[in-house]
Amino acid sequence: MTGPRLPTSSVLMTPPLLAILAFGLAPLTIVVVWSFWSWDPLTYWIKPDLSLAGYAAILEAGRWTVIVSTLVKALGTALLCLLIAYPTAYAVHFLAGRRLSIILLALITIPFFTSYLIRSFSWRLVLGRTGVLNTWLQDWGITHAPLEWLLFSNFAVVVGLVASYLPFATFPLLLSMRRVDPTFLAAAQDLGAGFWKSLTSILLPLTMSGIFAGFLFVFVMVVGSSTEVQMLGGAGASIVSVMINDVMRVANYPLAFAISTIVLVVIFGLVLIGNRIFGLASLFEDQSQ
Amino acid sequence: MAISIQIDRVSREYGPVKALDDVTLDIRAGEFFTLLGSSGCGKSSLLKLIGGFDRQTSGRVAFDGKDVGNLPANRRPVNTVFQSLALFPHMSVAQNVGYGLRLRGLSGSTLETRISGALDLVELSGFGQRDVNLLSGGQRQRVALARALVMEPGILLLDEPLTGLDERLRQQMRDEFGRLHKRTGATFILVTHNQDEALSLSDRMAVMHRGRIEQVDAPARFFEAPANAFVARFVGIDTLLRPERIVATGNHAEATIAGQTLPVRVEGPADLAASVVAIRPDRLFLAPQGMPPALTLMVVGTTFRGLHRDLKLAFSDGQTLVIAIEADADIGQLSAGQQVSVGLKPDAAVLISSAGLPPA
Description:
Chain A is mainly alpha-helical. Chain A has 13 helices and two strands.
């Protein structure tokens, strides 16, 4: 045999590396590169001429407001999810026994066996004019007419988004709590800390990586979501995915990719900042020190 | 201020399992008290009840006579050095040590002084800014001690704190515990399965077994008068002989084993069915020629034990006993099957309860 033998490890590394290149990096590169090409509205044709027209078009027709409102929705949904997921993860990990924690985890996971479409639609039955919620509110005499803003509104969208993406916050939090030795909490208590003090001074700092991972997952999912807005949003409600879809219909790839690039840059920025501050990578480190 | 502890008829049940079974115990203020036992004996369960990390199923735990059943761990005058140490990994040495004091509202130079005082106490002066994750095992141990002692607790709980350390460090930290106990005057309660630690540190100790306390005494008493066969075995008195006859007159008695009679001190029931004769290996000697032998036994074999040598001898009915002899003793003439004469020093044999021994 001639030539150096490849070590087994690099042979094993090759397929996953190729997969990452082919399925991850290559499409991303195309997206970024094409966003700087030009588009002819007469022929719907794209040409490899360097142009910032795609980015300029973002500023037209209120497109940037959709981007901003999407980011705001993503931020709000992610924070709401964390607010609900943290106590949930705490209960599952620290309070529930083995059996109960498995049941709780199942209850969190099982709704995900149905499609986003069905789940979003089911909120119409809850939030609509004659939906469950409005019926109850009137039956109990809390309101006298159905609340109109419950459905086809930002409220409905956020409810749908939180319901859809809650587990993406719950599971990273659970993962990070599993890494916290319960003796740390006992030690804090031993030194005089009550529940809230040990929560804020011990558990929260030690689960920061999980908090940020949960935030990021929900944030990214919301930025990429469309079903909830389409099913539950009011007239003219939009979100980045819907807008990109609209632009793609006229084959304006540079504009669609410019929007995507902006969103990508925001998310990458978040990841980098988060990793710097919260040590995201530590969530996946080996548990044994 | 040292605090005394009263444990009154305390049980802790986990379903059908009794981790603690009707335990009654008084620990004096300022005492170094050890809970000794093998794993699963209930010693850690008892420690948790004192620390306030768990609640008893029945019974009463009191500090200085006052019931603390409703006092959560964070409001008890107790601090703990945990087995895993539980140093907060996101805090420096000084932040760890100062954690409890900050909760008490201390800050600024008062806080700094107290922290550096505690670090001086455990000989870690100047380590305040270090990362706790980068310390050696012994240093981490000292930080955990400083973190607990800086609170000036009335009671300090030590939950198997030396388990993870190597032998040299273990001895060093053991001496440290003794020194700090004298220095602080607090009530120290050590939980361990290590007899050496218990014997060398404790004013008194309790041997626990299956959720019950078998004996509470000063360390020396466990050898002079073990409460029963289990305790005798646990502290290393392995020779437990079943007598065939006991003649007792007051505190003096004679027991007959395989036809040979020897004097025994009575420390339990003088009853054939419920008693065994415990013989301390260090109180027996090979009787020189011409001296009237107390026992005549047959050599089974010897085992090298480092600083001494165990000589195993058998009675005619097959029961065996062990004598500790000098490691370099001339044992050339001691071949298996040979008859030897054995003399007894005072208090070599004690008549104790056979509880804990499988029925013959």
